[in-house]
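Sequence, structure tokens reproduced for absentees:
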Amino acid sequence: MAEALLRELAGHRFEAFSAGPEPALRVHPLTVAQLRPGVSDLGVLCPKSWLEFTGEWAPRMDLVVALDASVAAPHAPAFPGDPELAAWNFANPLADGISESERVRVFQKVFWQIVRQLSAFIEAPQDALLSRAMSARGARTRAPASLPNL
């Protein structure tokens, strides 16, 4: 969800990728339902393993955002380029034990929380984002998380 929203909200200003430790076989239908009204290209979305972003040919990232604390360090792999980590913790709309109507509400709530968080991120001065990323890189040896698929 965050990948599609960042592409839509920021245009070509950022490259966005989404992955997680246990990718689904397809994008969840409730994710598609939330994105369809405002996202122009849903065809590029597909669940991916975060291991796809660890190899020699993986894209170099400046920032990796975890949307769920359960995928944070020490479970995440090391990503090339030693990107900065940001943790934006949202409720898991796929959690066990919630009704289908509650699941729909959680998807809607998380969608708007991600929109707000990404909007603030996009509006931040790029120089400030890069300087934070550069200073954080010097203090760490690896990136501890990635974007989970919703």
